[in-house]
């Protein structure tokens, strides 16, 4: 089926939408790569992209069950960051970044290095929040087989203890969870999942109770300086 056979309108510089019997078909022309971000990519993509789209995927839930031996922890004391785990009827909100053809190899190489601690790529269908046509996206998720970095089964209390005591070359683990929760709230009213919200609340509570200072607590308005004096 060729798009030239049908009436068309431009959706953006990378998409063409065709009307066929009331159904919209999306043809990806300029963009050769779409990457769905659900963790630190929400606030720190650090690669060139043409645009980003708010939306969600089905069939997964966001969980803090990926060990981080570099970005938010060390090999001796790995932190905890999010990955996606299969869950029927679940929904994960995030941002999809659309990358131009001439930048795709560069971005792919960068992400393969950035997500090197046990991640692999899957393709799922992305649903834009504005109701525009859905399309396939690449998603980096943790491999659950023979992967020592996959840490499913820990309680919220265990994860929170790990987070408040971990720091890596990208910053503290506390900063990571607070920036994630903050970014999700800015994204969409329904974007914050229960797991992230409960863990965020527990981490903040422990930091305040134990007077564990982290600059992100102040910057993101979870606390004031006097709490730590």
Name some characteristics of this structure.
single chain, alpha+beta, Hypothetical upf0131 protein ytfp, three-stranded antiparallel sheet, 25% helix
Question: What pattern of helices and strands is seen along the backbone?
Answer: EEEEEEHEEHEEHHH
Quaternary state, please?
Answer: single chain
What CATH architecture would you give? Roll
Q: DSSP helix count?
A: 5
Distance between termini? 67 Å
Overall domain count = 1
Return the CATH class.
Answer: Alpha Beta
CATH topology: Hypothetical upf0131 protein ytfp
Major beta sheet summary? 5 strands, antiparallel
Poorly predicted sequence stretches spanning 5 or more consecutive residues: 1-29
Helix and strand composition category? alpha+beta
Q: What portion of the residues fall into strands of 2 or more residues?
A: 35-45%
Silhouette:
globular
**Sequence of strands across the biggest β-sheet:** 4-6-5-7-8
Overall pLDDT: 87
Structural Rg: 19 Å
In total, the number of strands is: 10
Helix content: 10-25%
CATH superfamily: Gamma-glutamyl cyclotransferase-like
Please give a structural write-up:
The protein is α+β, with helices and mostly antiparallel strands. It has helices at 104-114, 156-164, 173-187, 194-210, 215-219; strands at 8-12, 15-20, 23-28, 31-37, 51-68, 79-100, 119-128, 135-142, 167-168, 171-172. The strands form 3 sheets. A 5-stranded antiparallel β-sheet has the order 4-6-5-7-8. A 3-stranded antiparallel β-sheet has the order 1-2-3, with no helix packed on it. Helix 2 (156-164) packs across helix 4 and helix 3 (173-187) packs across helix 4 (194-210). Residues 1-29 have low confidence and may be disordered.
